[in-house]
Amino acid sequence: MRVKQSLIAALAVVLLGLSGAVAAKDFRYATTGDILGLDPHANNEGPTNTMKSNLYGRLVHRLPDLKLVPDLATNWERLNPTTWRFTLRQGVTFHNGDAFSADDVVYSFKRQTQPSSEMSFALSSVADLKKIDSHTVEIVTKGPDPTLLLNMPNFYIVSMKYMEANKAFEVVRGAGKTNFANLHANGTGPFKLVEWVQDNRVVLAPFDKYWDRNNLKSNVTKAIFRPIPNDATRVAALLSGEIDLMYPVPLQDIPRLKNEASVEVLQGPELRTIFLGMDQWREESLDMPGSGKNPFKDVRVRKAFAHAIDTQAIQRVVMRGASTPTGQMIAPGINGFQPDLNTPYALNPEMSKKLLAEAGYPTGFPVTLDCPNDRYVNDEAICTAVVPMLERIGIKVRLNAQTKSLHFNKIGKAQKNNTNFYMLGWTPGSYDAYNVLQNIMSMDGDGQGTWNSGHYSNPRVEELTDEIATEVDENKRDAMIREAFKIHQDEVGHIPLHQQALAWGISKKTVAKVWQRPFNDVDLRTVIMK
Prior knowledge:
The protein is an alpha+beta fold. The protein has helices at 5-10, 46-55, 102-112, 148-151, 160-165, 180-183, 231-240, 254-258, 299-308, 311-318, 349-358, 379-391, 404-411, 433-439, 459-470, 474-490, and strands at 12-15, 25-31, 60-62, 68-70, 73-80, 83-88, 126-133, 136-141, 191-197, 201-206, 220-227, 245-246, 263-278, 323-325, 366-372, 396-402, 421-426, 494-507, 511-516, 528-529. It has 16 helices and 20 strands. Strands 2, 9, 10, 11, 12, 13, 14, 15, 16, 17 and 18 form an 11-stranded mixed sheet that branches. It has a 4-stranded antiparallel sheet with strand order 5-6-8-7, with helices on one face.
């Protein structure tokens, strides 16, 4: 199954005066927030996953153009509809010198499939992973799995010997945890950890025994990642030469930076959908103690919210045109996208008021909107704009905007989905619709509902999700995806807002080449310094 060619064609490679031999150099880059931790099996979050991929090997690696290529597996074959054999690369060592073997793959499977692992979704279809010999494993799936290979870049391999020596088998859920596995890293990736000072910097250095060292194009001698939440500070750091690359560029600063001779602004599409979710499982709203009521369990209330939010105004004013309003939970370019279902909910505040009255809330009710302020493009500003839109129909909104580590802990399983109304963004890690059905739109299966913080669940959608997971006929599978998305849309399971656009700022003085990826992060393998 392939990602649509239109997306691949939109990917951009930046060539900034590269000629002849280049000297190795430190690379300093920044985004809005810190990583959530170093445990490869703990947190499923974009910048965190990117840092993992610099440090840890996977059986299969995904290139910036989304092509799948061998990593710790040299080749693979399907023996029958439910059995895959992977031949493992020989002569590979971990950063601490441990030799890589099939035992590490089996151990990593057992570790990543713990209930506390947010990465368990990638292996939810796997019934067993068996060692055949020291460099051969077989993966047996519960049924035919059309997305198994697409999920392999999300399967991170750790050293069994190292983890056991440090009593680190258990995966501890939540951002910023101080257990051993979250503070230390020992992978087979092209870079090794030098230090992580939380909320200050992550420093990586090339791994001189990396198995593909001779073919690694990057000449980075040291990579320094810095979280810089403040937009103005991040821009100033780029202009002053303090950093070599920043993302995202604040929308209001794009025209200014385009006029800077020393800066290249790189823009492109992103596959992330930003949406709002609602608590649909508690009998009583967290914001209405003693009432015995949860308004969001009523579809009329969810529809009222959907028709009160002006996605066009958010695009025009908050996002300055750098977003695409959407009616779906996936972006164009994701397998299973349904163009004719991509119409956002129509703005109709009068209908919203009528729906609230019919549901028994003619004067509205109170609700807290949980929002990050350092994760997505203009995330807090979007939530701030949503507040008066809902107040216009009588909803009394309290905005709770905070750093992403606190936000994700609050709305996630670490704090038992402690939210009534929240913002989240999602890029399907497999680039297939099943991923969002599995993680966001269902609850009742292995690895399902990891970030379904509002516990949306419909019996037919649950049934379809299970069928989609094993259907190999593309036409039948697409029809199932369409049916599930239509039910979810009609029930307002979530309120999709838009896909945000990418905007990176790059120093022409120091950066020779970098590849902007549609998942909005920096793969150090693609960075070449002048």
